[in-house]
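I hope you will forgive my troubling you with a question about protein structure. The matter concerns a single protein, recorded as an amino acid sequence and a row of backbone structure tokens. Please examine both parts with care and let me know of anything in them that strikes you as inconsistent. Thank you for your consideration; the sequence and its tokens are set out here:
***
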Amino acid sequence: MEWSRLKTRNHAAFRIYYHLVLSMKYRHKCLSAPMLSRLEEILREVLVKWGCELVEFGGGADHVHLLFESDPTVKPADLVRNLKSVSARRMRREFASELAPYYWKPYFWNSAYALISVGGRASIETLLRYIENQDDPRRLGQPLD
């Protein structure tokens, strides 16, 4: 993928990248390898519906990192709200038994999040390496082991 080439639409040229960090409610280390894989699929699907593209996904047992490209018409806060609500609802439904030891109420994400525009101090390549090198529970085993 060529990072510096601008995309165009109507009378606009743009290239907008965001680094989103979402953490689990109470920072519980409850994301297993299958859960992370499914979470990546869900988030990618929601981003496509918003006209965005997931560039990289990574994280650990208690948080995830997304690097995605956005359209200038997308309101970032609305997108994040939708990403969190759709993914939480689906993950709680699909992994109810795995999440039960951690959450007895319908919790999933922490209410806070970090959304950072990318392109200033850290290059896209630097950020890609950072996300790719996150501790990945898919390599570490189950969180309750």
